Amino acid sequence: MTDIKEKNLREFGKIIMRLVAGQDLTRAEAGEYYRQVILNEQPELQQGAFLISHLTKGPNTEELCGAWDALYEFDTAKIEPDFAEECCDIVGTGSDALKTVNVSTPAALIAAACGIKIAKKGARLVTGVSGATDVLEIFGLDISKPLSMAQKCLEEHGICYLPGESFLKSGWARLIQSMRFTSVFNIIGPLTRPCAKTSSIVIGAYAEALCPQLIEILRETGTKAAISPYGMSEKHDPELGIDEISICGPTAIVELRQGNIDKYTLTPTDFGVKQCSYRQIASRDSASGNAEAILAVLEGRDNGPLADLFAVNAAAALRVSGYEEDLKKGTALALEALANGQALEKLKKLIACQGRDNESIHSLTAAVNNSR
């Protein structure tokens, strides 16, 4: 038994040294060694060395597909909602240089309010102030509830939240508790499909070069349609960006559509909104501050740049899902869903179904204040 363990340690160590030397892995090799990390079959020291050496080498698409295979097969719990429609997801990789108020969460609520089915993934913060789970917990979400409640919420209200802490059974959920550095899991985690009905996704990237790779992985692993944005600020170096569509500068887009991949650049005017400064959409100092900023928009108390930011990202979901391909029209629909309170109602229904109790439903503002 000792000899077998020692052999496995040495083999894994050799893979680490291959990566350090810049050598590529096959899809099968990547799948096997990520399986060992996910299932905690190697010491933490070896796991950390493997993750950082692979990221430093620069993972190629074949390797990332192998890592996706391992995560999907060995670590992803799944829901299968009972309806005919297909679902859309909105999520970002995190680890972007310019931190904004959480975008994918309110954008998901808005898109659902417009009429598409949204099965949104998310997780706690890794490098920023707050992840989707952090914000939604402030509103009253209970991530300890079984995934069957998320499925029920999706079936009844057209939206659900799938926290990585719940659907990722052991590997990434274990690692993310202690990791505060970017890894391949930041890339493939947002690409997993815990909802069997998800066929389209808006997946923001922390680097422009990552966008085509994300789209290639999605195409290779069966996603029908996808948009990967990398947003920039006009006043910052282009290498300092955000993993969302930007309204403070241009956005590089890579889109998967009917099996073809297109690359193009969008500006705020393409969505029919005004350009703003990064400062106006920047992350607040705390998760509760970000939650309050989101709630102010949902409740109609803030109709400024943040509302536009959430709306343009919701418009991307409307496009990729096939609901409304014109981005200006999609943005107008998103802003209307904010103005008439339907997006706020989606949040209330989400918390009513997946939340801790009914108190937060009646006073979301109180929930935010209590979190301070």
Structure description:
By secondary structure, the chain is an alpha/beta fold. It is built from 18 helices and eight strands. The protein has helices at residues 2-20, 27-38, 44-57, 61-75, 104-114, 132-139, 147-157, 164-167, 171-176, 184-188, 210-220, 278-281, 287-298, 305-320, 327-339, 342-354, 359-362, 364-370, and strands spanning 87-92, 117-122, 159-163, 198-204, 225-232, 241-242, 251-257, 260-266. Strands 1, 2, 3, 4, 5, 6, 7 and 8 form an eight-stranded mixed sheet that branches. β1 (87-92), α5 and β2 form a beta-alpha-beta unit. α7 runs antiparallel to α16. The longest helix has 19 residues, at 2-20. It is globular and about 65 Å long. The model has no long low-confidence stretch (mean pLDDT 93).
Given helix and strand content, the structural type is alpha/beta
Question: Roughly how much helix do the residues carry, as a percent range?
Answer: 40-55%
Q: How many structural domains can be distinguished in the coordinates? A: 2
CATH superfamily of the largest domain: Nucleoside phosphorylase/phosphoribosyltransferase catalytic domain
The CATH topology of the largest domain is given as Pyrimidine Nucleoside Phosphorylase, Chain A, domain 2
Q: How is the biggest beta sheet arranged?
A: 8 strands, mixed
Q: Assign an overall shape.
A: globular
Number of DSSP strands? 8
- Rg computed from alpha carbons, rounded to a whole number of angstroms: 20 Å
Task: Give the CATH level 1 class of the largest domain.
Answer: Alpha Beta
H and E order? HHHHEHEHHEHHHEHEEEEHHHHHHH
